[in-house]
Write a structure and sequence with these properties.
The protein is an alpha+beta fold. The protein is 13% helix and 30% strand. It has 2 domains: 4-65, no CATH class; 74-274, Fumarylacetoacetase-like, C-terminal domain (Fumarylacetoacetate hydrolase, domain 2, Alpha-Beta Complex), CATH 3.90.850.10.
Length: 276
Amino acid sequence: MPFRLANVAGRAALVDEQDRWYDLESRGGPSDPMAALEQPALLAGLSAGLDGEGAAGHLAEAELRAPVPRPRNVFGVGLNYRTHAEESNMEPPSTPLVFTKFPSCIGGPNDDVVLATETGDWEVELVVVIGQGGKDIARSEVWDRIVGLTVGQDISDRALQFAASPPHFDLGKSRDTYGPIGPVVVSTDSFSDPADLAISCSINGDIKQDDRTTSLLFGVEELVSYLSAVMTLRCGDLIFTGTPAGVGAASGTYLRPGDVIESTIQGIGSMVNRCR
C-alpha cells in the first residue's frame, strides 16, 4: 500500500491523495519522523484508512520541515547525468563519483536558502531514502531496501567547491541550508516505475533543468548496491543521485537574494525555496 510521510512542525504525519495531513501519533504511530521511517508496513496500513476524518489540515498550509530530519549519512553523486558532465566540460565517470553532503546542511522544503557566497548554484536531484538497508545489497533487492523517494536541492558554492585541487565537493555543497529536501517521502510502490520520473527546476519561474531520471548514468539500483558494498546502509541514510544539465555555472549565472527556486519531481511534489 502506498504512503506519503511528511514532517509537520517536527511531528510525523501521513498525507492522503487530497494533500490532507494526519498526525501519525494520533493514529497509533510514532511522533518522530525518523522512527516512522523504520515502520513502512505500519505507514502503509494506516494510509489505507485515510478518508478525511481526523485530518489536521492541508499540506499547503502546514509548517513543513525536512521529512528525514536527522539522517546519519548523506551521500551525493557527481556528474551522474551525461548532459551535466558535458556542460561542466568533464568526462563522465566510469564509476559513481561519490561525495559527502554533511547532514547539518539538510533543511525543509520551504526553508530559505541562506546565500553565503556570490557563486551559489542550483541542482535539483532525486533523493533516495534508505529503509531496511544492509550490507552488500544485490541490485535485484535494492527497491525492497528503500523506504521512499523525495526531492532534493544540492545547492553548491562553486567558488568553495573549486577552491582546491582536487575540488572540495563536500564543503562546497554543505553550507547551512544547502540541502533542502521534501515535501514528503513517497513509498516506492506509489510509482508505476520509480526509476522513470520527470525532474525539473525553475528559478523565478524560468525552467532551467528538465529531464527524466532514466537519464542517470548510474541508476538507483547501481548506486545503492555500490555504496552498500563499501558500508552498511541504515534507515534514513540519504542518497542525492545527481543533477541533470542546466545548472547556473554552465552559463555563469548564480543565485541572488530574492531568487525563488522551485524543484519538482513527478509523483513526489515540489519544493519552493527563497534565497536570502
